[in-house]
Amino acid sequence: MVNRKFPMTDPGAVRPASTDSPREIDWLKNIYQPNATNLTVRAVIVGMVIGAAMSLSNLYVFFKTGWSMGVTLTACILAFSAFQLLQGLRIVKKPLGVLENNALTTVASGAGYMTGGGNMAAFGALLMVTTVRPDTFSMIAWFALIAALGVFAAIPIKRQLINQEGLAYPTGTATAETIASIHSAASGGGASKSKWLAGSAAFAAVLTWFRDAWHVIPATIPIPLQLSGHKLAEWTLSLKAEVVLIGGGALMSFKTGWSLLLGGLLTYGVLGPSLVERGIVTAVSYKAIVAWTLWPGAAILVASGLTSFAIDYKSIARSFTGLTRIFGGGKKSDEGISTLECPEWWFPAGFAVLSPFVVFLMVWLFQIPIWAALIAIPLAVVMGFVAARVTGETDVTPTKALGPVTQMLYGVMTPGNLSGNIMSANVTGGIGLHAADLLTTLKTGWLLGAKPRHQLYAQLFGVVAGAIVIVPAFNLIIPDPSLLGGEVWPAPSCVVWAGVSKAFSDGIGALHETSRTAIVVGLVLGVALALLERFAPKRLRPAIPSPSGLGIAMVIPGSNCIAMFLGAALAEWLRRKKPALAEKTVVPVASGLIAGESLMGILIAILIVGGFITT
To answer: Which of 9, 279, 520, 599 is the most exposed place for a label (fewest CB within 10 A)?
Structure first.
């Protein structure tokens, strides 16, 4: 077990209190490392740099695929590699410690996930439906405040979910195992993973430069076949020289990968030609087809997300009973683990200080009535608590469910207010994601024996860095909102959020009759697939398509679906045929491909804006 690799150096540092649970007493005696270095200035600085780079990488990936990729596993390997290099150059003398890496990774995670929780989906959707771009400083403040509220929302539930119930938080557990492995001198795993990551990143960066800057390598490789009198490339069915998509696919499950391929082939190889033949879609192009397929795709995503959310009623019920235990009072202790945890009064104090600023921005920037803005804060706390538990039990933060629920509520409360509808959902989604993100990294710290307060400070440093980077970067690569929803920047999540907002604002009666029918079919299919995923016999579940894969496939180009499937298939083949090699290479190589192409893509965009490169 990872939590036994680093025994406590000073067993008498904290005396267990009578209020401590048996798990907490065991942690204090056998796991907690009171004398180990946690958060340091250099960890904050390097963590912010890595987190900023990963937020840029995630921004690029998000608008290409609709997914935000995991941060913590890549960040801890990058941190280890960076300090190995700095030591080799004699810039630093002291090696990066295990818990110092954990704190650094927490900083990076706070920054890197600024694209998630509906942040970029909401920002992009806002521009798509209103074409009004709020000023940069206001949006930096907006995202930073929402993320900080999510950090404070995690405080009262951490001890219940991690210390006492021991929820899995699979990504947090995997990160703890990775940190322990790469810092173990005997394993040698750290150096090996670092080399794989660096090599794949360099390859992806060079390929991207030759493709997008010098145009030596074609961006698209056509398949020499025709469908309904048109080349397959016109139906978006082609091969792309974008390794970021292959890397993203490798980090997905194989089920999601083949579901994307199935959905892409059905959308652009079957449904698209049928729509054109019937005159419902009047042009053979990505934008023309996705303007119709958006509706069934969004319906599948929303229905499956809400159904999975509802199926997990026990987790939801435990969330509310947990709230009763947390806020029901009880004896407080100034001994034991309570002296290490963040004080519970930080939660109401943080919300008392930050909430007025969020409410002000909701009213000022998005014309949300003040009474409706005030409702968003307690609603976000409750949804954040539920999101944190669901993440702990399933490793999936249910943003796809929480966002549409909020959009529906605000569609009823403030009809016709498209921007308010979208950005209110951003509040609940953002707070839920960042609460779940901090708890995921706190799980890593729990397993390694870290100090929880240091990780909260680390997360706050990270979200500030991420907000400062992400908004200018968005404005740089998406200077014109009309680029969103196109073949270059498919932005599927933005398309879905904008579509849901319009549906709740204008009513689906304004849509074409076939679109309304497609929505009903999508809703039924989403519910059915979610139920089958949960209740079908285990031997049949691998053959049931992923509703997320099918839904996303209907709002991204078919070429993206093909590329991500190839990545998922290659990773799955390696895991089955050579599991030891897969463990060493899949995550580092995939992460390197994503980082190399996305960061080079951002650099090329800067050079184009500056006039150094002509398109």
So the answer is: 279
d(CA 62, CA 489): 9
HEC secondary structure over 73-121 = HHHHHHHHHHHHHHHHCCCCCCCCCHHHHHHHHHHHHHHHHHHCCCHHH
**Closest to 404 measured CA to CA, from 300, 517, 530:** 300
**CA-closest candidate to residue 44, choices 101, 113, 114:** 101
> What is the separation, in whole angstroms, between the first and last Cα of the chain?
53
- pLDDT digit string (tens) for 108-134? 999 888 876 578 888 888 888 886 788
pLDDT tens for 553-610 read 888 889 989 998 999 999 999 999 999 899 888 888 887 888 788 778 878 877 876 6
C-beta separation of 397 from 436 below 8 A: yes
Q: Output 336 or 378, whichever has higher pLDDT.
A: 378
Q: Which of 100-104, 374-378, 458-462, 576-580 has the lowest mean pLDDT?
A: 374-378
Report the candidate in 381, 379, 390 with the shortest Cα–Cα distance to residue 439.
390
Pair of tokens at residue 595: 């980082």
Give the H/E segment covering residue 239.
strand 239-240
What is the per-residue pLDDT for 497? 81
Q: Which of 30-34, 322-326, 502-506 has the lowest mean pLDDT?
A: 322-326
Q: Under a CB-based contact definition with an 8 Å cutoff, are residues 551 and 298 in contact?
A: yes
**Start-end of H helices in 183-285:** 189-208, 243-250, 254-266, 272-277
| Strand duo 226-227 + 230-231: pairing | antiparallel
Secondary structure of residue 281 in the 3-state scheme? coil
Per the structure block, which two tokens stand in for 351? 């919300």
And the tokens for 172? 């947090």
Rounded to the nearest integer, the mean pLDDT of the chain is 82
- Comparing C-alpha atoms, which of 324, 320, 237 is closest to residue 286? 237
Distance CA 444, CA 442 (A): 5
Q: Are 455 and 445 in contact (CB under 8 A)?
A: yes
Q: What is the dihedral of CA 430, 436, 437, 438, to 10 degrees?
A: 110
pLDDT digits (tens, 9 = 90+) for 295-312: 888 788 778 867 876 776
**Tokens of residue 343, six digits:** 């004080």
- Per-residue pLDDT for 287 more than 90? no
